[in-house]
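Hey, can you fold this one?
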Amino acid sequence: MQYDATMKRIMDSDSNIRNCIVADTEGEIKAVMHRDGIRNYLSDEETSESLKRAATSWKARKQLSPKIGQGQYAVAAFEKLTRMTFPAGENHLVFVSMASNPVREDYNQGGREDVVEHVLNILSGDPTKN
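Sure. Predicted structure:
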């Protein structure tokens, strides 16, 4: 996976995205990209532990995939931010954090649903969807 190029495309897809993190399926951080001027709510240690818990959840979801299909994404909404988790291939997860109260810069901007659609398209590898 080309971390920097993928993360940049994700970050550029919506101005409300605060950061993008690529981790392996154990939750170990491989790459991070932050939007300029954004302050993290969690410490590095808290972020790492949160990603490890999310990776464990994805492993549990994967066990059910023969019955319900492959997981596409998960959303956790909090007061201050929304975190979306996407599987990226067999060995990586992509975590996208955005403001819970997005700022609309464009009349057509739809918020979380648009971010989910953009990230799924980017991760699909199909250039006709980007």
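The first strand starts at residue 17 and ends at 24. Let me know if you want another pass with a different chain boundary.
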